[in-house]
Every structure is written in structure tokens, then in C-alpha cells.
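hiii, so i know i said id send this last week but things got crazy w the move. better late than never?? heres the sequnce for the chain we talked about at the cafe, plus the structure i predicted for it. fair warning i was half asleep when i ran it
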Amino acid sequence: MKKPLLITIIILVVLLALPAVNFIRWAFQEKKPMNIVILDKTVPTFGRLGHRSLVYVLTNDRFVRKEKGGSFSAAKDYYGFVPLRPEREKQFRKRDFRLTELLELAENNDALFYADTYGVFFNDWYQGIKKARRSRRLYGGLNNNDYLLMSEMKNRDKLVILEYNTFDFPTAPLEKFKTEELLGISSTGWMGQFYRTLDTVSAHGVPGWMPALYRKQYLEPWTFTNPGVVLLKENSIIVLEEGKHLSSALPLITTSEAPAARFSVTPAVTFENSFDVISPGQNDVISYFNLRTTPAGDTLLAVNDLQASFPAVVQEPDNGNTYYFAGDFSNNKIPFWTSRFKGMDKINRWLLYTDNPEDSDRFFWLYYRPLIEGLFNEYYSSSSGK
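okay and structure toks below
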């Protein structure tokens, strides 16, 4: 046999054997039984991107349901908005917490994860309709039963993780107030989003209603075309454009040495999803958002009582078990089929993200995944003896 052919055969054998070996390594990991309540009210497609990342991490790290023993299902194991097939008929159901089952849920579950409470609106569900700023809500917003279950779980010192937009529209003012009081966090009302371009023509650009809002507030035309960040609060808008207000448009999530070592997260990673601006109160700040502003950007933020750095992840004081993620962390496009292979973090460095610090794909692999693993493993280890 010729040497080049032999080398080719050896490479093919290794490539074919590697997935099998990694699957076997994953399958024989020690299972970690844990009951988890997952809530995702923003599920406008069957992709269920709002909580698939969480289920990916749980599956890969061998967290399983206590009674059934199997891995969690992104399609079945969650409360919230549930799209029904066939897709063309546009049918859905709402799976909510009933008041009569709240105490039982709090008693029988170890953790609660509110991935997204924003909801689904008419224009999201019925595609092809002309986009308006806020169309009619079909479902969404944190309600009183959501709050009561969160409160019960927190009072029992269970693991409670809440994510971006828990407080704000379309959550009603009373639930917003009670949730802020329970968590010791204050929402400023400002929400932000990175855009690859600030024009309205590109598929990655801003929605058409933003220039109208900007012209109404500033009495100036919308002339932005570079990448940037848009901040919104009710009917107010702030536009930060790369090259003028920002040295680089992608926001950074930064983590100091101690929490970075605790969770094995990278000290700095770019983030391209939505976020909200909060005041942490007495909570401990694990990570910060940083907008890479120029002096002009700092001035624009200061006029609106904002700063370029604000909390991204906060933890209840005194090493408590309640956490808030001030960004849309769980919304990531990932190859879910790899969740049943151990060691994918090493392979993914070649296939799914790069060493470029500006590569936003690094967020899931170098920040979200180790953070979720760390939080759930910390709690599992501390509660396994209970």
C-alpha cells in the first residue's frame, strides 16, 4: 500500500473514531439528578433558541431529571409559549404555572431558570406582516404566579437564575416592583442592542421605526450607517455609533480575576445580544458590561445619567443562590447535536470560534457554558448532602 493512501486511511479512521469515543465518554459520565423549572415565554419558532443553550449545557454536563433519569428536552421540558405542528396552521398553547401547584413545584424542584419572559407578539408569530414597533401581544410578561414561584424557590434557598428583561415591558408595574424588591435590584428602564449596521436597509440593520423615534426626539435626520449600539427607554433613544461614540461597537463582558477563576470564564468576551441596564443594590457583581466609548460617547451617556460600565451578572449577597443575568445570554445558535459528545470544547476551538477577541461566537463557549456549568455544579455539590 502506498504511503499517501495509508496516511489518508489513518486520518479517516481517527476522524470517524473520535465522535464514537467522545460519545462513549459522555455516556459513561456520572449522572447528576436535578429537577429544574425552565420558563421561556419567547418561542416564536420551533428552534426554541431562548433556552436551547441552557439545555445544551445541562445535557453535556450530564444533568438529568430525577424521576425519569433522562436528559432534559428543549422541546418538552419547559413552561411558556409552545408552538404546535403543523407550523403552517400557526397554533400554539400556553403552559403556565397554576396557583394550586406552586408549592408542590417549589418543593419538588431544585432550581428555577427564567430564560425569557418577554413573550410572543403578533408580528413575531405571523410572519410577513408589516413590522410596527410593538404589535399586539399574544402572550408574555412576568405574571403573579411566576413571581410567587420565584419567591417560594428563593425562600427555600433553591438555585434561582433570572435572565434579561424580567422586569421590563411587557411585565406589569406591580410584578416589576415586587420582583425588584425581592431581588434587591433596580431596573433603570434602559435596554440596549448591538447592530452590525445602523442603517435600515440591511438585514442586520435597525428596524424601520427607530429613525422615526430618533427624528421625533432630536429633530435631526437619521444618518447612522456604521455598526453601533442603540439604547431605548420608553420613548427615548440613544444611538452610539462606531467611529464617533464607540471605538468598537461590540459590547464587552468583563470579569475580574476571582470570579473568572471560580467559573473558569474568559476575563473578556464580546456580546452581541440584547441587554438591560440595572442597579445592583447590595448584590455582588460577578461580571460587567462595558461599552467601549469615546469621549463623545461618554458625554452622550452622562447626559442621560448612564455610564459605559454596568452589571452583567449579579449574585445575591453572602453567597446566596439567586442570580440575575442582565443580558439575553441563553439565545445562541449552537450545533445541539454535539451536546452528547464530551470534549467538544477542545474541538470547537478549531470549528466554531476563533482566537479573534472580536469573535462573538466565543461568548457561548468561553463564557456562557462555563458559567452555567459552574453555577449548577456549585449548587449540586452543596445540596447533594441535603
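btw The chain has a mean pLDDT of 89. thought thatd interest u
miss u guys!!
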